[in-house]
Fold this sequence. Notes:
By secondary structure, the protein is an alpha+beta fold. It has eight helices and 19 strands. It has four domains: 9-40 and 126-151, no CATH class; 47-121, CATH 2.40.50.140; 159-273, Aminopeptidase (3-Layer(aba) Sandwich), CATH 3.40.630; 278-352, no CATH class. It has helices at residues 126-134, 144-158, 193-215, 232-242, 272-276, 285-302, 314-320, 324-331, and strands spanning 9-15, 19-26, 29-37, 49-58, 63-67, 73-77, 90-97, 105-112, 118-121, 140-141, 161-163, 169-174, 179-184, 219-224, 251-252, 260-265, 308-312, 335-339, 349-352. A six-stranded mixed beta sheet has the order 11-12-13-14-16-15, with helices on one face. Strands 4-5-6-8-7 form a five-stranded mixed β-barrel. A four-stranded mixed beta sheet has the order 3-2-1-10, sandwiched between helices. Helix 3 (193-215) packs parallel to helix 4, helix 6 crosses helix 7 and helix 6 (285-302) runs parallel beside helix 8.
Amino acid sequence: xxxxxxxxxxxxxxxxxxxxxxxxxxxxxxxxxxxxxxxxxxxxxxxxxxxxxxxxxxxxxxxxxxxxxxxxxxxxxxxxxxxxxxxxxxxxxxxxxxxxxxxxxxxxxxxxxxxxxxxxxxxxxxxxxxxxxxxxxxxxxxxxxxxxxxxxxxxxxxxxxxxxxxxxxxxxxxxxxxxxxxxxxxxxxxxxxxxxxxxxxxxxxxxxxxxxxxxxxxxxxxxxxxxxxxxxxxxxxxxxxxxxxxxxxxxxxxxxxxxxxxxxxxxxxxxxxxxxxxxxxxxxxxxxxxxxxxxxxxxxxxxxxxxxxxxxxxxxxxxxxxxxxxxxxxxxxxxxxxxxxxxxxxxxxxxxx
Length: 353
């Protein structure tokens, strides 16, 4: 049997209740996960074009804060090439960066506008997004295979520590200011320690680039490389290749005397971690409710006609109320959900009776 082609990408689309999930895999591993929820404001999705109102011009930071349709917000960096704006003016903009926790969407100026804030052109559909990543003619897989692939992608996103091919690990820890990546040699085999360390650092760059795309993390990235006396030229070349798919906009710095490598990766999409995790770092109530809907649907398909019973945390039960009608359309009203105090958002119990 011949080996699979190198750098093969596959495309998956899971159409769930209240959300759809698009997954791109690279050589069998998830590389990107795009989650679109029915509640997402259309005007702040990547690529959406709108008429916006200048809400406030902040001269100190040379920026304008924009009001979008439905009360959405966006941030526009001003520059000498742009007109002098006044509060209340209408302009046409395109979203170049989705909102993230505590930050507004990032807009690009297209021209002067008129009328009231409104959507001019919707963001590309998930099918269009996938076609862009997979190339012409790449099939989009749907159904059970897509759901399982999306579930696996979510599980990997939520893990902070990841194994490296050949041994060792990387820990990826986002903060408000930057994302720190610690490379740990662990028990990586090899008689030559220097060679093993070099191999681990090279593997870490490739694996971290995939995982950062998967988690939706960008901005300032700092690698704490393993060992000392690094081969700077080889590591910089490997970083350029690993982060090539994130261009344009990637900037890579030289390795410091402290053994760290810094780079910046453009922020375009809302971090998937923000969509899956709550402020406390655990699974969010809405993400738990989506898992509950999928679990009930899976059990309902496996046991047609059975009564389905579920238990979850009170927060997940409340969030599930928004999804129950959609699930009833698919399965019929043959399920009940009980809120149980003391359960975490990631703990679910589902059974067919």
